[in-house]
Design a protein that fits this description.
Layout (H helix, E strand, L loop, with lengths): L8 H15 L8 H18 L9 H8 L10 H18 L6 H14 L4 H5 L3 H11 L4
Helix pairs in contact: 1-2, 1-3, 2-4, 4-5
Length: 141
């Protein structure tokens, strides 16, 4: 028998509403429907990766880390956040929880910007492949 902790979406929605006030200056906002969809996407991503997470989750920190990216656009903002969230949880699993979020988030942001905002492209790479590619681009690989 499998058990999953289902995060409460109410706190997530309130947190995303607060984030909206900050990201509006970058021309990025989420509708209530998009917020609800992202909360559901979080539950799905956690279930798919077998992760358990307490509290507000990674979304607020993703928003903070990515809101000033020149590759993030209102037209696909919510969808991009959902995909970044999925990639983050997958990479977190690949790292075996040995890599703190504070190290993983800048790496994800750097890879996102290097991919020109192509989350579909980025989603095709493992954490190890991404680190290797970034090192090669930096001339350290």
């Amino acid at each position: 028998m499998e058990f999953f902790i289902v995060p409460q979406s109410g706190g997530t929605l309130a947190t995303l509403e607060a984030a909206n006030r900050e990201t509006a200056r970058y021309g990025l906002t989420l509708t209530r429907e998009e917020m609800a969809a992202l909360a559901e996407s979080r539950v799905r991503a956690l279930r798919d990766t077998g992760r358990v997470e307490l509290g507000e989750g990674i979304l607020p920190r993703l928003i903070e880390a990515f809101c000033d990216s020149p590759h993030l656009h209102q037209a696909d903002y919510a969808e991009t956040l959902g995909t970044l969230q999925e990639i983050f949880y997958r990479w977190k699993n690949e790292a075996g929880d040995r890599t703190p979020d504070d190290e993983l988030l800048p790496l994800l942001r750097r890879a996102f910007d290097r991919a020109g905002g192509g989350v579909g492209y980025l989603a095709g790479f493992s954490l190890a492949e991404t680190v290797r590619l970034l090192r090669e681009e930096d001339g350290r690989g």
